[in-house]
UniProtKB/TrEMBL annotation:
Stretch list, region Disordered: 1-42, 210-253, 296-325
PROSITE patterns assigned to the protein according to its UniProt record, in alphabetical order: BRIX
A GO BP annotation: rRNA processing
Biased composition (Low complexity): 15-36
InterPro entries, alphabetized: Brix, BRX1
Species per Swiss-Prot/TrEMBL record: Ramalina farinacea
Name recorded for this polypeptide: Ribosome biogenesis protein brx1
Biased composition annotated in UniProt, kind: Polar residues: 1-14
Length: 342
């Protein structure tokens, strides 16, 4: 069992004990515990539009397996009337919506919304790698809860704070969900760099340190201390004593092994309402993939046009010199055989 789960379970047990003691005090004072407001349950509705590829469908299935508090629905027929997603969320008793919109069979846009009042974030998904493509050795229990790790840059601007809150509410599995298992064995990392949100998923792997490795570390430390001197030997002994106090006898090592999927999100627009309303934030640096493809086509067309113009110029120059058959007349010189022996 990972030590992360042990620490979390210990904290939750302490919290439950504190809440039970406060509840007893409240009942003795004459106030009931039912008056305390309960946190709303977080449920996520996951669906896509028509036109998604098989890779997009595999990503949707991977996210659905990672989120036990989510509900998967059929494809949405329309791409313009997105306000219908609020009715679907109300029908399935979901307060978060994760909608994948496919365009031209190439581009994938992700809509994250807090139904029914908003806000909504539209993002462009790039660098997609599903779990089946990566073939990583890591694995996690189905239905377990993840640890969410956010970069410190998410607290720099209000827009990033809002995106962080939405990501935490969608990807953070609540402890009172129906399909969860009481384990925390994987971690989801969210990093903001180059104007994009980089998302990775890792397994928290706990392995026992063998006695041979511990002996090897001790011998390495002893060799370093003998080569150094008396002061370094004293420092190493102090560190060893502190380490023995802090670490238990059954030493374990924690490591992160990537599971997948991995993808990158580029924020485009933040709307005030749920799939509608005024624009609160707009990313001015975002360039649509249609514009990128158009620029590539224009650059190729420019090179082709330059080659054609060069060919026309060469043909005209050869025609003026009479080097092309059937085009123009070549001037005969005075020393040519046809002129001398005419």
């Amino acid at each position: 069992m990972p030590s992360a789960y042990k620490t979390l379970s210990a904290s939750t047990s302490k919290g439950s004990a504190n809440t039970s003691s406060t509840a007893n005090l409240s009942t003795t004072n004459g106030t009931s515990s039912s008056s305390t407001p309960k946190a709303p349950r977080q449920r996520v509705l996951i669906l896509s539009s028509r036109g998604v590829t098989y890779r997009h469908r595999h990503l949707l299935n991977d996210i659905y397996t990672l989120l036990p508090h989510s509900r998967k629905d059929a494809k949405l027929d329309t791409k313009t009337k997105l306000y219908q997603l609020n009715e679907l969320a109300e029908l399935y008793n979901c307060n978060n919506v994760l909608f994948f919109e496919a365009r031209k069979g190439k581009d994938l846009y992700v809509w994250m919304s807090k139904a029914p009042n908003g806000p909504t974030v539209k993002m462009h998904l790039q660098n997609l790698h599903t779990t089946s493509e990566l073939h990583f050795p890591g694995n996690c229990l189905k239905g377990s809860r993840p640890l969410l790790s956010f970069d410190s840059t998410f607290t720099s601007t209000p827009a990033l704070l809002l995106i962080k809150d939405l990501l935490a509410q969608i990807f953070g599995v609540p402890p009172n969900a129906r399909k969860i298992k009481p384990f925390v064995d994987h971690l989801m990392g969210f990093t903001f760099a180059d104007g994009k949100v980089w998302i990775r998923c890792f397994e928290i792997r706990e392995s026992d340190v063998s006695k041979a490795e511990a002996r090897k570390e001790d011998t390495d430390n002893n060799s370093k201390t003998t080569a150094g001197g008396g002061e370094e030997e004293k420092k190493s002994k102090k560190k060893k004593k502190e380490k023995e106090k802090t670490t238990p006898r059954d030493q374990t090592e924690l490591s992160l092994v990537e599971i997948g999927p991995r993808f990158v999100l580029t924020p485009i627009v933040i709307l005030e309402g749920s799939f509608g309303g005024p624009v609160v934030y707009e990313n001015k640096e975002f360039v649509s993939p249609n514009q990128v493809r158009r620029d590539l086509r224009m650059s190729k067309a420019g090179r082709h046009r330059a080659r054609n113009e060069q060919d026309v110029e060469d043909k005209g120059r050869r025609g003026d010199l009479g080097l092309r058959t059937g085009v123009g007349k070549r001037e005969r010189g005075e020393l040519e055989e046809r002129v001398l022996f005419a």
